[in-house]
Amino acid sequence: MTTLLHIECSPRKQRSASLEVARSFITRYRENAPDTDIVTLDLWSLALPEFDDLALEAKYAGLNGTPLTAAQQDAWNTLKDLADHLHRADVLVMSVPLWNFSIPYKLKHFIDLVSQKDILFSFDPEHGLEGLLVNKTAVVMYARGLDFSAQSITPATRFDFQKPYVEAWLKFVGVTDVHSVIVEKTILGEDVDRSAREAANQQARRLADSI
Question: Global pTM?
Answer without folding.
Answer: 0.95
